[in-house]
C-alpha cells in the first residue's frame, strides 16, 4: 500500500476536520444504518485502499451525521502546530545559554603536569645513562663499544 496513495485518500477527510476516531467510526458504520457495525474492513482485502475508499464514499457530504463523541473539532491543525513550534523555538532562544563545561578540571591539569614532569625526568635519566655508557634500565651494565 503506497504511502502517497493513502495520504491522498485521507487528506480531504483530515482537511474536513475528521479526527482518527471519527474516521475509524465512519469506516465501521454506514450513515444510513449507524447502529449496525459493518465488520472488519480489511480482512482478506487485496487492495485495502479501495476498501477504505468504498467504506468512506457514503459519508461524502454527511460528516455532520457523525456522533458527537467521535466528530472531533474542525480546526487548522497545521497552523496550530506551526504556532506551537514557533512558540517553543522563541522560548528556547530566550533562555540564557548554559555555562560551558570546563574541558579539564584543575585536578586533571595538575595530574597531567605531574605526569609530564615524571616522564621528562625519566627521559633525562635515560639520556644521561645512555650518554655515559651506564647501566640498562634493569641494572645490568652495558658493554662498551670499541
Q: How is the secondary structure organized here?
A:
Blueprint: H1 3-15, H2 20-28, E1 29-30, E2 33-37, H3 48-56, H4 68-71, H5 77-94, H6 106-132
Descriptive key words:
2 strands, 6 helices, 5% strand, mainly alpha, 146 residues
Give an account of the 3D structure.
It contains six helices and two strands. The protein has a two-stranded antiparallel sheet. The N and C termini lie far apart (88 Å). The chain is mainly alpha-helical. Strand 1 (29-30) and strand 2 (33-37) form a beta hairpin. Helices cover 55% and strands 5% of the residues.
- Low-confidence regions: none
- What is the helix tally? 6
Give the number of DSSP strands.
Answer: 2
> Cα-atom Rg, whole angstroms?
39 Å
Helix residue percentage: 40-55%
Instruction: Note the beta-strand portion.
Output: under 5%
Please state the structural category: mainly alpha
Large-scale geometry: elongated
Order of helices and strands: HHEEHHHH
Calculate the terminal CA-CA distance, rounded to whole Å. Answer: 88 Å
Task: Note the main sheet.
Answer: 2 strands, antiparallel
Major β-sheet strand ordering: 1-2
Mean pLDDT: 82
Can you summarize this structure?
This protein has 146 residues and is mainly α.
Amino acid at each position: 500500500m503506497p504511502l502517497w496513495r493513502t495520504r491522498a485518500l485521507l487528506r480531504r477527510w483530515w482537511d474536513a476536520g475528521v479526527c482518527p476516531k471519527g474516521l475509524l467510526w465512519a469506516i465501521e458504520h454506514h450513515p444510513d444504518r449507524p447502529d449496525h457495525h459493518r465488520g472488519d474492513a480489511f480482512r482478506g482485502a487485496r487492495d485495502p485502499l479501495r476498501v477504505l475508499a468504498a467504506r468512506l464514499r457514503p459519508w461524502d457530504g454527511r460528516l455532520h451525521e457523525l456522533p458527537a463523541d467521535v466528530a472531533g473539532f474542525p480546526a487548522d491543525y497545521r497552523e496550530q502546530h506551526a504556532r506551537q513550534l514557533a512558540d517553543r523555538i522563541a522560548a528556547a532562544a530566550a533562555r540564557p545559554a548554559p555555562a560551558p563545561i570546563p574541558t579539564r578540571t584543575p585536578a586533571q591539569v595538575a595530574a597531567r603536569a605531574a605526569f609530564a614532569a615524571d616522564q621528562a625526568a625519566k627521559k633525562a635519566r635515560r639520556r644521561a645513562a645512555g650518554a655515559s655508557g651506564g647501566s640498562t634500565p634493569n641494572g645490568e651494565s652495558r658493554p662498551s663499544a670499541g
